[in-house]
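Quick one before lunch.
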Amino acid sequence: MAPDARDTFGPKRKNPLATPPVRTHKSAQQKRLMADLANRYAQNVLGKFYVDNQCIDCDLCRETAPNNYTRWDDGGYSYVYKQPSSPEEEAACKEAMEGCPVEAIGNNG
Ligand code: SF4
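Model of the iron/sulfur cluster complex:
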């Protein structure tokens, strides 16, 4: 009789060939990380891009899209001081949003 995977890898070792579980729903932590319009900072100018209160002041968005994001020094966080007005700025804002490590940047446009 041929050994099955449990025999090959032992009862406590994981089968490295096993298919990883498929996740169909985001975990609670992932859900919390998404930017929330209800928590946007008041300093954001009106428009589709905004920063919410999860910002950890890492500077990535200000480096990526300096024409659109700046720092609120009193609070120690970033906000959108100008909405994008060109395809280049739009792309930079989107790149900043996608790169934000805590998903504090939202786009409700
Ligand atoms: S990239 Fe995200 S966490 Fe970093 S400063 Fe910008 S909004 Fe804040």
